[in-house]
Design brief:
The protein is of the alpha+beta class. The chain has seven helices and eleven strands. Bound molecules: calcium ion (CA). Calcium ion binds next to α5.
Length: about 240
Protein backbone atom coordinates (compact mmCIF):
# COMPACT_ATOMS: atom_id res chain seq x y z
CA UNK A 1 0.00 0.00 0.00
CA UNK A 2 1.21 3.53 -0.74
CA UNK A 3 -0.36 6.91 -0.22
CA UNK A 4 0.10 10.63 -0.81
CA UNK A 5 -1.76 13.66 0.45
CA UNK A 6 -1.90 17.37 -0.17
CA UNK A 7 -4.01 20.25 1.11
CA UNK A 8 -3.92 23.69 -0.48
CA UNK A 9 -5.58 26.98 0.38
CA UNK A 10 -6.63 27.56 -3.25
CA UNK A 11 -6.58 30.92 -4.99
CA UNK A 12 -9.35 32.93 -3.39
CA UNK A 13 -9.59 31.97 0.30
CA UNK A 14 -7.47 33.53 3.02
CA UNK A 15 -7.36 30.42 5.21
CA UNK A 16 -7.26 26.70 4.70
CA UNK A 17 -10.12 25.15 6.68
CA UNK A 18 -9.51 21.66 5.26
CA UNK A 19 -7.50 19.01 7.07
CA UNK A 20 -6.12 15.62 6.06
CA UNK A 21 -4.33 12.98 8.06
CA UNK A 22 -3.12 9.41 7.80
CA UNK A 23 -2.06 6.55 10.02
CA UNK A 24 -0.29 4.33 7.54
CA UNK A 25 0.39 1.54 10.04
CA UNK A 26 -3.31 1.28 10.81
CA UNK A 27 -4.35 1.75 7.16
CA UNK A 28 -6.44 4.79 8.10
CA UNK A 29 -6.91 8.00 6.09
CA UNK A 30 -9.20 11.00 6.54
CA UNK A 31 -10.20 14.30 4.92
CA UNK A 32 -12.22 16.97 6.74
CA UNK A 33 -13.58 20.26 5.38
CA UNK A 34 -14.38 22.66 8.19
CA UNK A 35 -16.93 25.44 8.38
CA UNK A 36 -17.78 28.15 10.88
CA UNK A 37 -16.78 31.75 11.43
CA UNK A 38 -13.39 33.03 12.63
CA UNK A 39 -11.10 30.12 13.44
CA UNK A 40 -13.95 27.63 13.82
CA UNK A 41 -13.65 25.78 10.54
CA UNK A 42 -9.95 25.14 10.93
CA UNK A 43 -10.34 24.00 14.54
CA UNK A 44 -13.23 21.67 13.66
CA UNK A 45 -11.52 19.97 10.72
CA UNK A 46 -8.22 19.39 12.50
CA UNK A 47 -9.90 18.18 15.69
CA UNK A 48 -12.22 15.81 13.82
CA UNK A 49 -9.37 14.32 11.75
CA UNK A 50 -7.23 13.76 14.85
CA UNK A 51 -10.01 12.26 16.97
CA UNK A 52 -11.16 10.06 14.09
CA UNK A 53 -7.71 8.49 13.65
CA UNK A 54 -7.21 8.07 17.39
CA UNK A 55 -10.55 6.36 17.97
CA UNK A 56 -10.72 4.25 14.81
CA UNK A 57 -7.57 2.29 15.62
CA UNK A 58 -8.62 1.38 19.16
CA UNK A 59 -9.62 -2.31 19.47
CA UNK A 60 -8.61 -2.91 15.88
CA UNK A 61 -8.14 -6.61 16.49
CA UNK A 62 -11.32 -7.21 18.43
CA UNK A 63 -13.99 -4.93 16.94
CA UNK A 64 -15.33 -4.97 13.38
CA UNK A 65 -14.29 -2.08 11.13
CA UNK A 66 -17.86 -0.92 10.57
CA UNK A 67 -18.37 -0.51 14.32
CA UNK A 68 -15.02 1.22 14.91
CA UNK A 69 -15.37 3.69 12.04
CA UNK A 70 -18.89 4.63 13.04
CA UNK A 71 -17.77 5.08 16.65
CA UNK A 72 -14.77 7.17 15.56
CA UNK A 73 -16.97 9.54 13.55
CA UNK A 74 -19.46 9.79 16.42
CA UNK A 75 -16.68 10.55 18.92
CA UNK A 76 -15.21 13.17 16.57
CA UNK A 77 -18.69 14.71 16.45
CA UNK A 78 -18.97 14.79 20.23
CA UNK A 79 -15.56 16.41 20.74
CA UNK A 80 -16.13 19.13 18.13
CA UNK A 81 -19.64 19.79 19.45
CA UNK A 82 -18.44 20.06 23.07
CA UNK A 83 -15.53 22.32 22.11
CA UNK A 84 -17.90 24.63 20.23
CA UNK A 85 -19.88 25.01 23.47
CA UNK A 86 -16.80 25.50 25.67
CA UNK A 87 -15.45 28.37 23.57
CA UNK A 88 -18.00 30.97 22.43
CA UNK A 89 -15.78 32.07 19.53
CA UNK A 90 -16.12 28.56 18.07
CA UNK A 91 -19.90 28.31 18.40
CA UNK A 92 -21.52 26.83 15.31
CA UNK A 93 -18.38 25.22 13.89
CA UNK A 94 -18.57 21.89 12.10
CA UNK A 95 -16.83 19.82 9.49
CA UNK A 96 -17.30 17.16 6.89
CA UNK A 97 -15.46 13.87 7.41
CA UNK A 98 -14.64 11.16 4.92
CA UNK A 99 -12.47 8.32 6.18
CA UNK A 100 -10.99 5.16 4.67
CA UNK A 101 -9.66 2.02 6.29
CA UNK A 102 -7.67 -0.50 4.27
CA UNK A 103 -7.98 -3.94 5.85
CA UNK A 104 -4.74 -5.55 7.02
CA UNK A 105 -5.15 -8.50 4.68
CA UNK A 106 -5.78 -6.15 1.71
CA UNK A 107 -9.01 -8.01 1.04
CA UNK A 108 -11.46 -5.28 1.94
CA UNK A 109 -11.76 -1.57 2.65
CA UNK A 110 -14.24 0.51 4.60
CA UNK A 111 -15.42 4.05 3.95
CA UNK A 112 -17.16 6.35 6.43
CA UNK A 113 -18.77 9.62 5.38
CA UNK A 114 -20.51 12.65 6.86
CA UNK A 115 -21.11 15.70 4.63
CA UNK A 116 -20.04 16.43 1.06
CA UNK A 117 -16.39 15.46 0.92
CA UNK A 118 -16.04 12.37 -1.27
CA UNK A 119 -14.40 9.00 -1.67
CA UNK A 120 -13.78 7.72 -5.19
CA UNK A 121 -12.22 4.49 -6.36
CA UNK A 122 -10.34 4.08 -9.63
CA UNK A 123 -10.40 0.41 -10.68
CA UNK A 124 -9.13 -0.72 -14.05
CA UNK A 125 -9.23 2.86 -15.32
CA UNK A 126 -12.87 3.37 -14.29
CA UNK A 127 -13.65 6.02 -11.67
CA UNK A 128 -16.54 5.38 -9.29
CA UNK A 129 -17.85 7.68 -6.57
CA UNK A 130 -18.37 5.49 -3.50
CA UNK A 131 -19.94 8.04 -1.14
CA UNK A 132 -23.22 9.90 -1.36
CA UNK A 133 -23.02 13.62 -0.60
CA UNK A 134 -25.05 14.70 2.40
CA UNK A 135 -26.05 17.92 0.69
CA UNK A 136 -29.35 19.55 -0.13
CA UNK A 137 -28.79 19.43 -3.89
CA UNK A 138 -27.60 15.80 -3.88
CA UNK A 139 -30.70 14.77 -1.97
CA UNK A 140 -32.83 16.66 -4.50
CA UNK A 141 -31.06 14.82 -7.35
CA UNK A 142 -31.53 11.42 -5.68
CA UNK A 143 -35.21 12.22 -5.16
CA UNK A 144 -35.55 13.11 -8.85
CA UNK A 145 -36.38 16.75 -8.12
CA UNK A 146 -33.26 18.25 -9.69
CA UNK A 147 -30.89 17.20 -12.47
CA UNK A 148 -27.15 16.82 -11.87
CA UNK A 149 -26.52 19.79 -14.18
CA UNK A 150 -28.93 21.94 -12.18
CA UNK A 151 -27.32 20.80 -8.94
CA UNK A 152 -23.80 21.66 -10.12
CA UNK A 153 -24.69 25.33 -10.65
CA UNK A 154 -27.29 25.74 -7.89
CA UNK A 155 -26.70 28.52 -5.39
CA UNK A 156 -27.90 26.03 -2.76
CA UNK A 157 -25.06 23.58 -3.38
CA UNK A 158 -23.17 24.77 -0.29
CA UNK A 159 -25.88 23.53 2.04
CA UNK A 160 -24.89 20.26 3.68
CA UNK A 161 -27.44 18.19 5.52
CA UNK A 162 -25.08 16.34 7.85
CA UNK A 163 -21.92 17.61 9.53
CA UNK A 164 -19.56 16.55 12.28
CA UNK A 165 -19.87 18.80 15.34
CA UNK A 166 -22.88 20.88 14.38
CA UNK A 167 -25.30 18.90 16.53
CA UNK A 168 -25.03 16.61 19.53
CA UNK A 169 -25.68 13.57 17.38
CA UNK A 170 -24.58 12.49 13.93
CA UNK A 171 -25.42 9.64 11.59
CA UNK A 172 -22.37 8.52 9.56
CA UNK A 173 -22.68 6.35 6.44
CA UNK A 174 -20.35 3.36 6.52
CA UNK A 175 -19.77 1.06 3.54
CA UNK A 176 -17.56 -1.90 2.79
CA UNK A 177 -15.92 -2.74 -0.50
CA UNK A 178 -13.78 -5.63 -1.62
CA UNK A 179 -10.29 -4.75 -2.74
CA UNK A 180 -8.57 -5.63 -5.98
CA UNK A 181 -4.86 -5.19 -6.42
CA UNK A 182 -4.21 -1.84 -8.08
CA UNK A 183 -7.31 -0.11 -6.67
CA UNK A 184 -6.66 3.60 -6.23
CA UNK A 185 -8.77 5.51 -3.69
CA UNK A 186 -9.22 9.28 -3.69
CA UNK A 187 -10.54 11.17 -0.68
CA UNK A 188 -11.17 14.85 -1.45
CA UNK A 189 -12.89 18.00 -0.29
CA UNK A 190 -15.41 19.82 -2.48
CA UNK A 191 -12.75 22.34 -3.52
CA UNK A 192 -11.52 19.69 -5.95
CA UNK A 193 -14.98 18.70 -7.15
CA UNK A 194 -16.03 22.30 -7.80
CA UNK A 195 -13.28 22.68 -10.37
CA UNK A 196 -12.95 19.16 -11.82
CA UNK A 197 -15.77 16.92 -12.95
CA UNK A 198 -15.45 13.14 -12.64
CA UNK A 199 -14.12 12.86 -16.19
CA UNK A 200 -11.29 15.30 -15.49
CA UNK A 201 -10.42 13.55 -12.21
CA UNK A 202 -10.35 10.17 -13.98
CA UNK A 203 -8.08 11.56 -16.69
CA UNK A 204 -5.52 12.85 -14.17
CA UNK A 205 -5.60 9.60 -12.19
CA UNK A 206 -5.26 7.46 -15.31
CA UNK A 207 -2.42 9.54 -16.71
CA UNK A 208 -0.50 9.89 -13.47
CA UNK A 209 -1.70 6.98 -11.39
CA UNK A 210 1.15 4.70 -12.40
CA UNK A 211 3.86 7.14 -11.40
CA UNK A 212 4.52 8.42 -7.91
CA UNK A 213 1.27 9.11 -6.13
CA UNK A 214 2.53 12.46 -4.84
CA UNK A 215 2.99 13.62 -8.43
CA UNK A 216 -0.60 12.65 -9.09
CA UNK A 217 -1.89 14.47 -5.98
CA UNK A 218 0.05 17.58 -7.00
CA UNK A 219 -1.42 17.37 -10.51
CA UNK A 220 -4.99 17.25 -9.19
CA UNK A 221 -4.45 20.28 -6.95
CA UNK A 222 -2.59 22.21 -9.67
CA UNK A 223 -5.38 21.62 -12.16
CA UNK A 224 -8.06 22.68 -9.65
CA UNK A 225 -6.09 25.88 -9.03
CA UNK A 226 -5.67 26.50 -12.76
CA UNK A 227 -9.41 26.24 -13.16
CA UNK A 228 -10.15 28.77 -10.45
CA UNK A 229 -9.18 27.40 -7.03
CA UNK A 230 -12.25 29.07 -5.53
CA UNK A 231 -12.11 26.95 -2.36
CA UNK A 232 -9.56 25.02 -0.29
CA UNK A 233 -8.47 21.84 -2.10
CA UNK A 234 -7.52 18.61 -0.35
CA UNK A 235 -6.70 15.20 -1.80
CA UNK A 236 -5.57 11.92 -0.28
CA UNK A 237 -4.60 9.10 -2.64
CA UNK A 238 -4.22 5.50 -1.48
CA UNK A 239 -3.18 2.65 -3.74
CA UNK A 240 -3.25 -1.02 -2.77
CA1 LIG B 1 -14.85 23.33 1.01
Amino acid sequence: MEYAMLTDVGRSRGHNEDACAADEMAGLFVVCDGMGGAAGGEVASHMAARVFLEKARIERDTRPARWRLERAAIEANSEVFLESHRDMSLRGMGTTLVGLEIGRDLQEAWVVNVGDSRCYRLRQAVLEQLTNDHSFVDEQVRAGLMTEDEASVSHLRNIITRAVGSHGEVQPDVMRCELMQGDLFLLCSDGLIRELDDEAIARVLNEGGHSELQVCADALVDLANERGGCDNITVVLVRV
